[in-house]
Amino acid sequence: MVNIYIRVGQEILVLRIISDAPLMGRFWNRVYWILLVCPITCGLEDLNLPESHLSFYLRNHPEVAQRCQQDESCPYKSFLDEKRCWGYEDFCDSTSRLNSTSCPEPSMGWTKDKESQLDLFWKSVDFGYVLERRRELKTICSPKTQEDSLLECVRYTRFCHGKNLFFDFTKPGMFAGQDRFKENMFDENLRFSQDSFNNGVIGGHCDLDLESLRAEGEHKSALQSWYAEVEHFTSLPFRPIQDGHCDVIIDKPVYFMKLDAGVNMYHHFCDFINLYTSNHLNNSFSTDVFIVMWDTSTMGYSDLFSETWKAFTDYPIIRLHEYDKKRVCVRDAVFSLLPRMRYGMYYNQPLVYGCHGSSLFEAFNQHLAHRLKLTQHGPLENKIRITLLSRKTKYRNILNEDELVKAMKTVGEFEVQVVTYNRRITVDIDTPRKPLSTSSSRRLTMVFSGCRVGYERRAQPSKTPPGLQASAFTESNAESLSSVINDHCYIIVKETDTCKHVNITKNKKY
């Protein structure tokens, strides 16, 4: 008799198997039945979204909704019939869209009436901003076949999306110096000048609309657009990936980002809110993506909020200079919205008077709290909790901070704490990172050990799966069985009388 212990969320399932032979032994040619237990999302994406966002996701991904409809064990069925939308979708009308904007005060001359005041605020800092960028999206370089490249951008190249792109970083000195955002890296006109060491190639096999590209240069600036990077986009005479011109092929989707100051919460969260907004523009919230920090230097980057990246990627952040002296091909690339865009979010965005409440910022808040597994202890009855972030630096302190705190503590319904906010603050978010990889090949290995689990993923679902799946296992079919065991399965096989385990671990080849 063998017990199988499966951990799902905080619960342990115990399944009992009766076998006519011991599971441990030298006779690996025997076939034993091992029960593989997967969460109910097996066969469906591990969405990892706040529950309040699921209906929006399913409406924007009809292929996922259809699979869920056909799968009896799908946990998202209750969200399939909800007709809600973010507000930027083609099928979304103003009565169905998510909207928490309120404009109780007059606009002080910004608009003529209340309706235009609400609309202006919604288009400035809510999902109307996504709608406006979607309307601007146009193709810069057009593919003729699926193997060809694609480049499409919004106005002023503040956001771009590409397929099968080619980056040549082989020129000497491309990452020399302390300039984080060199503007002439891909300027082919400089290749025969004294600055020729500084030039590479960015391009793809597609029909380039050079006139349309040249018209988007008005906002050329390091943290305002991607024009300096795509200005010299080249129509190549070859297909980079198919014709073997790549030293590195990145199969996973890539988000390129030019980052603001990582030591400042205000500035760095301009990066994060724009990345989240880019997720909406790209209609994808997967964390199985690479984020590449577009920095044309090799200088260090101090990031006091590095834990936040776990809400967006399963992998460490890649520095661009890691591709120095390489020709890099990217199958799917996003050039994210930037932190200091003109009329962007939120550094250079003047707001119409009299309004408050952004559904986009509220969704961003919920998304981070869910992905980072943040919990709120409360709210407390009849209490308002106030946390004052104290700088304790040489400059820009609150001069009357002590008096302010003392005054707040005299109010009975206030619960006040003062936190010295600096680089010594630590945030412990327990979500593991995957190693970097440009390959997704998998294999199964069998390991003998003591009484420990061979493979366990930390971010388990919270519900117990109703369905179980059994598969035959032998040494010879271990490789084929890898298609059955995915990232969401937990397997512990333990003999009842002895402390032995068969640990079946799924490894990735990197």
Features of the shown structure:
510 residues, 5-stranded antiparallel beta sheet, 10 helices, disordered N terminus
The count of DSSP E runs of length 2 or more, i.e. the number of strands, is: 20
Q: Per DSSP, what share of the residues sits in E-state strands of 2 or more residues?
A: 15-25%
Helix count, DSSP H or I runs of 4 or more residues: 10
Task: Please estimate the helix content.
Answer: 10-25%
In whole angstroms, the N-to-C terminal distance is 38 Å
Low-confidence stretches: 1-43, 190-198, 437-510
Tell me the overall shape: globular
Provide the gyration radius in Å.
27 Å
Oligomer: single chain
Q: Spell the H/E element sequence.
A: EEEHHHHEEEEEHHEEEHEEEHEHEEEHEE
Structural class by helix and strand composition = alpha/beta
The main sheet comes to: 11 strands, mixed
Overall mean pLDDT: 79
